[in-house]
């Protein structure tokens, strides 16, 4: 039992009375011409400060391949007929301290390719679905395009059980820089347990419209998710619906279900490594982020994550991720980073307003999103049905860790127990 004390502070308010002369000077300061001059001065100062940081960057995608056999290089280039120029770098992949379960890969070779445009990314997304080889025919996988209210086209897909009665729906939202197709195996496992799954690539990701890896507004992604949920429910009436969100996708899901219209139609949400406790790598980045995102929204800010972060202890999972041309591996863009900080701050301030049933899962060694953020979510949320599971030593991409089967089973058990 804890006791809280409240301290009342009395403040004195002083009224400022302006004479006609003072009023004139204030009006002059607020004139349009003066404001323009002030903005130009601020803009000049900011550009001066940015000069040491700004450099010309090519729009590139890093694809990881094995240096000895070039396995992943062949995979990434097999879907691109036109020749491309390549650069080579060394990318170290370590298996952490668990060498028995996950062998250390000493080094990998990065092939830097020209970034794919929307048409190419969408073609790759569709091709993968049509070529999905399911020998036992337990899943019907289909692609579709979804137009949002802003006139943009989003790539979506579905996984339907072919031999199991559908008892529930799961709307799946991927994390930053990835896409819904990465969860193909998980979706099929959900199918085997009676859940029909729907995935949506949010703007700037996978086969959806937008500059690859660029998010101009996470509020737009939230609105897109709401519209997609409404579409899924309209096409599948009478079935309980759940949402799954990973990392930034988890933050998008949480903000969507804060809307009472959505909350009342969703039976619960599952969140893996949600971005609810994200902090800038340096405090100054948080202060400057809103300014830079306005002035240089698409600038790739490599200093925000200079050395990169390992997201899985499984070297094969890392190779699969970074050899995937639909995964954005360039430096984070300024507006994208600012949007993540903004939605994380928004959720931190409103955790006590969350009432929907949820299950949050997080690895204690996650260096991308803070597991303490998930702890605070669990403690502060007003939900009467809430669960948390922290996995000791696991990293950010929980469903791609060596223990993925345990984590998938934990999720499926939670979902199944809430089907009426």
TrEMBL record:
Residues 165-403 form the Serine aminopeptidase S33 domain. The chain crosses the membrane at residues 34-54. It holds the Pfam family Hydrolase_4. Keywords: Membrane, Transmembrane, Transmembrane helix. InterPro entries: AB_hydrolase_fold, Hydrolase_4, MAG_DAG_Lipase. It comes from the Eukaryota. The keyword Transcription does not apply. Gene3D superfamilies: alpha/beta hydrolase. PANTHER family: PHOSPHOLIPASE-RELATED. This is Serine aminopeptidase S33 domain-containing protein.
